[in-house]
Amino acid sequence: MFTPIGSAEATITIFMDDMPIPARPGETIAACLLRAGLSRFRTTPVSGAPRLPYCMIGHCFDCLVEIDGVGSRQACLSPVADGMRVRTQQGAATIDGVSPS
Ligand code: FES
């Protein structure tokens, strides 16, 4: 789906739902996870339908994930960092298990 430009090496590791994924410094979480072949980043709050990044420029919000314990973060705008913990966002975001409404 994605062809890397140049010969960047995946020299760091992020974790998606506790699964280690090689990452290239400077790339976004969305680019990294799509390259790894993930089939969903989040589910919708109403129907539970799976969603993947669509626009890759911060407009559609289909790439929302939990990053290091903080929900509703846009994976397409967030650069990877070594050891980063990313989780699939199930429905609406919560703070310590409580919906922030
Ligand atoms: S992919 Fe559209 S906002 Fe991230």
From TrEMBL:
Locate the transmembrane regions by residue number. Answer: none
Q: Which UniProt keywords apply?
A: Oxidoreductase
A Gene Ontology molecular function term of the record = iron-sulfur cluster binding
Outline the extent of the 2Fe-2S ferredoxin-type domain.
Answer: 10-92
Q: By its UniProt entry, which SUPFAM superfamilies does this protein fall under?
A: 2Fe-2S ferredoxin-like
This chain belongs to the protein called (2Fe-2S)-binding protein
- Organism source for this protein? Paenirhodobacter populi
